């Protein structure tokens, strides 16, 4: 677990003149996304569909396409307003009746954040990605 910090310290000092603890070496965002999606799919092997939007970052789309192809899953693309992002109504309409939901509600992330005294979901505004899945053979 310490290797990313140790390597970061050595490279940071040699290449950047950085002090210990200022540089950490790790996987790229795309590799982490691949690991995350793979783990999610492994955890729910009964799923047959990946749902995402067209405005996802290109390499994220490539990861989803590759995983869907390799696992024989359907990849369903959704389109939302690029600036506003998906609305609660659009998300609810995008989910098929067989999409698994366990005591979940679709809510406006910005509104939910404002209710707690925050400014909403910065990550949701920065990346408009969404995902979900439905059980195999449930159509």
Structural overview:
The chain has 139 residues and is mainly α. It is 45% helix and 7% strand. The chain is built from 6 helices and 2 strands. The protein has a two-stranded parallel sheet. Strand 1, helix 3 and strand 2 form a beta-alpha-beta unit. It is elongated and about 55 Å long.
Give a short summary of the structure:
This protein is mainly alpha-helical. It contains six helices and two strands, in the order ααβαβααα.
Radius of gyration: 19 Å
β content, as a range? 5-15%
Name the average pLDDT.
76
- Low-confidence parts, pLDDT < 50 over ≥5 residues? 100-107, 116-139
Based on the structure, what is the oligomeric state of the protein chains? single chain
> Helical element count?
6
How far apart the termini lie comes to: 43 Å
State the helicity in percent bands: 40-55%
Largest sheet: 2 strands, parallel
What is the approximate shape? elongated
Q: What's the β-strand tally? A: 2
For the record, the count of structural domains works out to: 2
- Coarse structural class: mainly alpha
Give, in order, the helices and strands: HHEHEHHH
The strand order across the widest sheet is 1-2
Strand-helix topology:
Blueprint: H1 3-16, H2 29-43, E1 49-53, H3 58-71, E2 74-78, H4 88-94, H5 109-115, H6 122-126
Parallel strand pairs: 1-2
Keyphrases for this structure?
disordered C terminus; two-stranded parallel ribbon; single chain; mainly alpha; 139 residues
